[in-house]
Amino acid sequence: MVTARLTLDPHFAVGAINRRIFGSFVEHLGRCVYDGIYEPGHPTADAEGFRGDVIDLVKELGTTTIRYPGGNFVSGFKWEDSVGPREDRPRRLDLAWHSTETNEIGLHEFSSWLTKVDSELMLAINLGTRGVEEALDLVEYTNIRSGSTLSDLRIANGQVDPFGVTMWCLGNEMDGPWQLGHRSAEDYGKIASQTAKALRQLDERLELVVCGSSSAQMPTFGSWERTVLQHTYEDVDYISCHAYYEERGGDLTSFLASGVNMDHFIESVVATADSVKAELRSSKQINISFDEWNVWYIERYQTVDRITDVEEWPVAPRLLEDVYSVADAVVFGSLLISLLKHADRVQSASLAQLVNVIAPIMTEPGGDSWRQTTFFPFSVTSRLARGTVLEVKLDSDTHDTKDYGTVATVDAVATFDAETGTAAVFLVNRSETEEATVTIDVAGLGALGILEASTLADADVYAANTLADQNRVGLTPNTSASLVDGVVTITLPAVSWSAVSLG
Ligand code: AHR
Question: Closest ligand 1 atom to the C-alpha of 178?
Answer without folding.
Answer: 10
